[in-house]
Amino acid sequence: MRKERSSERQLFLSLTQVEACKESLLRMLRMPCPLLSLILCKEITST
Question: Could you tell me the superkingdom of the organism this chain comes from (predicted)?
Answer without folding.
Answer: Eukaryota
